[in-house]
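Journal club prep, shared notes

We agreed each person brings one worked example of a sequence with its structure written out as tokens. Mine is MerR family transcriptional regulator. I'm keeping it raw so we can talk through how to read the token line rather than staring at a rendered picture. Sequence first:
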Amino acid sequence: VQPSDWLFNGADVVRVQVVLRLQRDLEINTPGAALALQLLDEIASLQKQLKRFE
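Then the structure, token by token:
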């Protein structure tokens, strides 16, 4: 598979943009950006759970 054959959905593009912004604005390295992305995902999941209880 060639890079020109790759397809990304909108959510994937947004995730890459978040990582790039973390690296650019906060000077976070790649492993740190990956961890931050995991934590942001966890926060979003917890927020969804909280909304179900409201």
